[in-house]
């Protein structure tokens, strides 16, 4: 499989497939394809279906298989980037929920629960994430632009929870209470931040879709307006 990412704020990834090659995607992600692409829909078993729904993904996935050389394109659903990611055996990646776009069949998508209770109670988007494992290429949607850091062992980065796009499984995640009553009441940053601790790579996104929705909400017309 060969791929090319094109476009600006609303990018697409085009995948050129040889005969018999296939791609797996969430329902609704395909934007165009050649006529010789054959689609089938699968749920992967009842337990796996509910697991995917709990992580914010569709319970069903579409498999597109090329009958002869073919091409298929997958599109982002909001302004941002499409991130290509090579998954290797024994090296898993953790991504924000709802970020999975498409992958080769050898990539496994599952739910990742952060183990620390405090993170589960207050971590918001950081509590339930997606785990990508197996082998093959995968593509993820990123809100806004993407910034990458390589954390050394014990090195930390404090991040607003919605800005965490993903990280290597070797990175640990926790929450940190914002100090000072005045900061909490008037700072506009909420009660908690996310703390990522190395070693490993982390990916941060500059425009969380949840933040965009919150910023636009006061501007939307109300029922009595």
- The number of distinct β-strands equals 19
User: How much helix is in the residues?
Assistant: 10-25%
Largest sheet: 6 strands, antiparallel
Put simply, the count of helices is 4
CATH superfamily: Mitochondrial biogenesis AIM24
Low-confidence stretches: 117-126, 180-189
Please indicate the percent range of residues in DSSP E strands (runs of 2 or more): over 45%
The level-1 CATH class:
Alpha Beta
SSE order, one letter for each helix or strand: EEEEEHEEEEEEHEEEEEEHEEH
Query: If you consult CATH, what is the topology?
Result: Double-stranded beta-helix
| Backbone structural class | mainly beta
Global outline: globular
Main-sheet strand order equals 5-6-3-10-13-8
Rg, rounded, reads 19 Å
Q: Ends: how far apart?
A: 52 Å
Number of domains as seen in the coordinates: 1
CATH architecture: 4-Layer Sandwich
């Amino acid at each position: 499989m060969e791929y090319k990412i094109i476009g600006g704020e609303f990018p697409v990834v085009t995948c050129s497939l040889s005969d018999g090659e296939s791609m797996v995607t969430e329902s609704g992600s395909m934007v165009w394809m050649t006529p010789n692409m054959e689609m089938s829909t699968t749920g992967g078993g009842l337990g796996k279906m509910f697991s995917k729904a709990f992580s914010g993904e569709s319970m069903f996935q579409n498999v597109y298989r090329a009958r002869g050389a073919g091409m298929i394109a997958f599109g982002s659903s909001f302004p941002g980037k499409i991130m290509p990611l090579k998954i290797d055996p024994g090296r898993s990646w953790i991504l924000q929920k709802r970020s999975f776009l498409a992958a080769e069949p050898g990539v496994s998508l599952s739910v990742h629960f952060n183990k620390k209770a405090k993170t589960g109670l207050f971590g918001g988007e950081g509590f339930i994430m997606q785990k990508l494992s197996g082998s093959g290429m995968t593509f993820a949607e990123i809100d806004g632009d993407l910034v990458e850091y390589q954390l050394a062992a014990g090195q930390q980065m404090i991040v607003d929870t919605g800005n965490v796009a993903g990280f290597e499984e070797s990175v640990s995640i926790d929450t940190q209470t914002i100090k000072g009553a005045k900061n909490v009441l008037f700072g506009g940053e909420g009660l908690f931040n996310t703390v990522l601790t190395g070693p490993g790579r982390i990916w941060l996104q500059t425009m969380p879709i949840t933040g965009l929705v919150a910023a636009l909400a006061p501007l939307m017309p109300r029922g009595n307006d």
